[in-house]
Amino acid sequence: MNNILSRFGIYSYCFLSLIAQAYSQSKTVDSIRLVNASFEDTPKQSSPPMGWTDCGFTGESAPDVHPSNFWQVSKPAFNGRTYMGLVVRHNDTWERVSQMLESPLVGGQCYNFSIYLSSSEQYRSGTNNRDLPIPMRLNDTVYNFDIPAVLRIWGGNISCGRSELLAESDPVDHFEWKQYSFRIKPKTNYKYIMLEAFFKTPVLFPYNGNILLDNASAFVPVPCNAPVEPPKTTAAVAKPKPPVLPAPAVTPPANQSSAHFVPKPKVGEIIKINNLYFTANSDSIPPNSLKALDDIFDYLMLNQTLVVEIGGHTNGLPKDDFCDSLSLLRAKAVAEYLTVKGIPKERMTYVGYGRRKPVDTNATREGRAKNQRVELKILSS
């Protein structure tokens, strides 16, 4: 009898273990769906689609639901009837939306996520002068927001929170809908997701651009070593027809501009060189950083009168002598690369600031990464 009970106990334990394992797996393998993932709503200006929260800058307009020909955007949706438009602006603001997830993204778990992106050939609007009080900010000049921007995907634990950058697209420089696929692996659990338009980096100067978003997928859990699925065949969209409705509410004066708008460099302005990395404790520049330096070279070639200071900075952990030496060597390495490419030496100086000018805390890895940087400072234009 005891033998039978013992066997029954073993079988019960195994059965309950299997149930617990299945329950645990069910909690980790379920896809996390977005509310209104196709951005469906009545077409409207300056109001995000249902289910999404505006996270933009105070005094700036919210994202739009298209198409209805306002801002001269008339592209058909890829899925459903409508889609969302996000812009970046030359006044150094950009649009973003947030949503609470039905269940959190799990730290350390990998997910596949996809979304269809496009750009509109026409996206015409005024902008605000943020140096003025809010009632006086509107600039009557109408610009075409047509420079390619990128999509950033953030995780957070409050509405509009940006705790971790989970993914970033390439610049969206096409007018047809294309599927963008991402492999996401959050470092910790996140209850909220944010979709954000941002400038192509390195950000030399802010500009006017747009991206269009449609047909986002769920966050689908996958093994981290699984290959990323290639994008599906893209859907070609006919070239937008000329708008048939009235132009935007902002009335353009005679000096309406349809060209790209890039502000003139200001003396004293500081530009961080993003995506520039160095070998650890060295001034050696790896190949994956050369694109960032080539963008700086192109910018200096287009602005032949600029004289710049290249400033190197480190985090605050090493001693002063080491930080001063390393930051100077890294700034010098950038200057030498640009000189070899063709920028005259007299247009550049280089300085090592060591750890004396932090932009964030040195108590966290993320803060130290922000402090370890190279910047351009405009000395004369």
Give an overview in words.
The chain has 381 residues and is α+β, with helices and mostly antiparallel strands. It has two domains: 53-222, Jelly Rolls; 270-380, OmpA-like domain (60s Ribosomal Protein L30, Chain: A, 2-Layer Sandwich), CATH 3.30.1330.60. Helices cover 18% and strands 28% of the residues. It contains four helices and 17 strands. The strands form three sheets. Strands 1, 2, 3, 4, 5, 8, 9, 10, 11, 12 and 13 form an eleven-stranded mixed β-sheet that branches. Strands 14-17-15-16 form a four-stranded mixed β-sheet. Helix 3 links the parallel strand 15 and strand 16 (348-352). Helix 2 crosses helix 3. The model is unreliable at 18-28, 130-137 and 236-261 (pLDDT under 50).
Count of individual domains: 2
C-alpha end-to-end distance = 95 Å
How much is the radius of gyration in Å?
Answer: 25 Å
Name the helix and strand elements from N-terminus to C-terminus, one letter apiece: HEEEEEEEEEEEEEEHEHEHE
CATH level 3 topology of the largest domain: Jelly Rolls
CATH architecture of the largest domain: Sandwich
Structural class: alpha+beta
Global geometry: globular
- Low-confidence segments, given as residue ranges, are 18-28, 130-137, 236-261
Proportion of residues in helical segments? 10-25%
Average pLDDT for all residues = 83
CATH class of the largest domain: Mainly Beta
Note the main sheet: 11 strands, mixed
Q: Total strand count, please? A: 17
- Relative strand content: 25-35%
- The total of helices stands at 4
